[in-house]
Amino acid sequence: MSASYPTRVFLAFKSGGRCAFKDCQKVLTSDGQNSNPAIIGEAAHIYGESPGTKTKPASARYRANMKDAQRNHYDNLIYLCPTCHTKIDKQEKDYPAELLFVLKAEHESWVAEQLDQGMSEVSFSELEIAAKALASGKHSSNGDSFEVIPPEEKINKNGLSDTVRSDIAMGLSKSHEVERFLANMATNVDEDFPERLKSGFKEKYLELKTTLSGDELFASMLEFAQAGQKGFRQQAAGLAILSHLFHLCEVFEK
């Protein structure tokens, strides 16, 4: 059993879509000419996954006393490019588990700092790029409540962790800017644009919630919101839009 797709999505999100090795940090989203962007990063096991066979050695850093659920948990995974993944497994003595845990923590801390900085620089330009990529082109007005519910209450209702809580708080710091942007789009460009944007998010949320919940659902929604964007300012814009709609009960349980 390997790490689940939702776990890999969450790992990629916390790694900023980049290889966790400081001397690499390669962006792990590949643009397609005739295809959608593809994620090419790999969820590498810190403590290895396989005990091996008579003809095949155990995975690097394998620990027999771990359960599969522990091996494939986010905490035991580090997001790497294919080259760095191969390197840590073929040069196991150079990359003990203790070092990999430190590298993961340092990289994810750096990503959080970059996203925070990017959020402070988000402008109409970044919001326009993110929003136009997400608008579904469908108009939906089905009487759903637009009531504002306290974020903390909604976070608890959806079983979101402290990590996601801090991400939502970061995104909500730009909520007023998102409101102004959507009002400007409705007034000067297309009056139906805000509704199409909400419709696109609702449609994706209803699709994902059939199989996902909690942090993994949020991470998958954020992957959708960021629409393959590579820059931290653009990723921050996607987080700002998702957090704004989360706050206004357009997406997630209320």
Query: How many helices?
Result: 11
Radius of gyration: 20 Å
- Determine the structural class based on helices, strands and strand pairing: mainly alpha
Task: Choose one word for the global shape.
Answer: elongated
Order of strands, main sheet, comes to: 1-2
SSE string? HEEEHEHHHHHHHHH
Uncertain segments are 137-148
Mean of pLDDT: 84
Assign a percent range to the helix content.
40-55%
State the separation between the terminal residues, measured CA to CA. 34 Å
**What is the total number of structural domains?**
2
Assess the beta-strand content as a share of residues: under 5%
Please provide a written account of the structure:
The structure is a single chain. With 254 residues, the protein is mostly helical. It folds into two domains: 105 residues, no CATH class; 127 residues, no CATH class. It is built from eleven helices and four strands, in the order H-E-E-E-H-E-H-H-H-H-H-H-H-H-H. The strands form two sheets. Strands 1-2 form a two-stranded antiparallel sheet. A two-stranded antiparallel sheet has the order 3-4.
Summarize the structure.
Residues 37-90 form the HNH nuclease domain. With 254 residues, this protein is mainly α.
Can you tag this structure with a few keywords?
254 residues; mainly alpha; 2 domains; two-stranded antiparallel ribbon; two-stranded antiparallel sheet; 11 helices; 4 strands; 53% helix; ABC-3C_CTD10
